[in-house]
Write a structure and sequence with these properties.
Layout (H helix, E strand, L loop, with lengths): L5 E2 L2 E2 H6 L8 H32 L28 H17 L2 E4 L4 E3 L2 H11 L6
Antiparallel strand pairs: 1-2, 3-4
Length: 134
Amino acid sequence: MNQSKEHSGVLQESLNRHHETTDVDFKRIVLTGIGLLGLMVMGLIYSGVVSSMFYRMSAQPCVKAEVFITPRPGELPPLPRLQSDPHSALVQLRNREDSILTGYAWVSKDSGLVRVPIEKAMELVVERGMLKSR
């Protein structure tokens, strides 16, 4: 029998080397790596061309842009306006929400509708049951 022929599903060369010789095609792996490297280089060149194109198209390419614009006195900046102290604004919001959840207030005096604290409302629901839907 010829040594390069298959012997019960395995090449004789693979048996002699004690490992598979036909599983890996190094030529294809190297060509694939070269192709990927070429694509990466072409992508970098393309991004450089586009970047330089935008740089040349800008009105004043060497002038640094102003980040902060000072408003004229007595004039408010355009919307949306940034908060100067977001922490205190959040504290005020939470205080308003807490006063709504924990305090009594009239919703409508004419109809006799009032707002009660959330704890009291939960007790009333447990005590009286839920209102039936109309």
